[in-house]
Design goal:
Layout: E1 3-6, E2 13-16, H1 24-42, H2 51-58, H3 62-71, E3 84-85, E4 92-93, H4 100-137
Antiparallel strand pairs: 1-2, 3-4
């Protein structure tokens, strides 16, 4: 169902249907900017360009470049120095919301938490068993 929203780029009202985050006019502007960036990156000497170089050469905002990489319009497999910032630390990543280092840190923390929880549960179960054994002897 369509919802009336303000365009984040031009602040005009538009019907948000879930397909686009911006109004029709801004979507057309974004598509034009995408074509400029894509033409720039298709040249052999620019395929290894990073976000700073692309922003400098084309004038396209880096947040828009990150959005296109995140949505898969610009593939890091084809353009190896492209990525988008990790939601946790800000380092560039090419898949998911977290970079490899943050994923590793989070997994390590989860393993530690699970081990501590298992240890606490084991102590509770051991104490419970002892209590019931004493209760029956009386």
């Amino acid at each position: 169902m369509a919802e009336l929203r303000n365009c984040p780029m031009c602040d005009e009202f538009f019907n948000y249907t879930g397909l686009r985050e911006v109004c029709h006019k801004c979507a057309l502007k974004e598509e034009d900017m995408y074509q400029v960036v894509y033409r720039f990156l298709r040249k052999r000497e620019n395929r290894a360009a990073n976000v700073d170089r692309i922003e400098e050469a084309t004038g396209v905002d880096r947040d828009l470049l990150y959005k296109w990489v995140r949505k898969g319009k610009l593939h890091p497999a084809v353009f190896p120095n492209l990525g988008y910032p990790c939601d946790n630390c800000g380092h560039l990543t090419t898949k998911g919301k977290l970079c490899e280092a943050c994923q590793g840190s989070l997994k390590s923390d989860l393993r530690t938490f699970e081990a501590a929880k298992d240890f606490r549960d084991e102590i509770v179960n051991r104490d419970r068993g002892t209590y019931l054994a004493d209760k029956r002897k009386r």
